[in-house]
């Protein structure tokens, strides 16, 4: 009997986390596109980091993870976007991310930074037909 209760509580706890997980495509990707792609997108990847897909975020930079799944306090991404040190803070220019934007990213990491199905990376702007030699 106790085993069934424990299993039921585990399923309930998992469901609660999933209900509160941020929607990557709706809440997080637009923030990253507006604030991060200029330095970490298809055209440029400072420090070897590209953040235009959830898979790229999970891959990290130069082999170093920036997200520790389920552990936002151990994630370099959270450390950078919440830093008060102007040398460390991301994005380096402009206002810091808003509290609700940081909270959404934190929730996404807590949920295991799920990768949306069929998400595609931004196209390399230099491969656009207008830049091709005829």
Automatic annotation (TrEMBL):
Residue ranges occupied by any Cytochrome c domain in the UniProt entry? 23-113
Key word Cytoplasm present in the record?
no
Pfam families, per database record = PSCyt1 (PF07635)
The answer to keyword Iron applying to this record is yes
Q: Which InterPro entries does this UniProt record tie to the protein?
A: Cyt_c-like_dom, Cyt_c-like_dom_sf, Cyt_c_Planctomycete-type
Transmembrane parts of this sequence: none
Q: Which GO terms describe its molecular function?
A: electron transfer activity; heme binding; metal ion binding
Give the SUPFAM superfamilies listed for this entry.
Cytochrome c
Keywords of the record: Heme, Iron, Metal-binding
Q: What is this protein called?
A: Cytochrome c domain-containing protein
Q: Which organism is it from?
A: marine metagenome
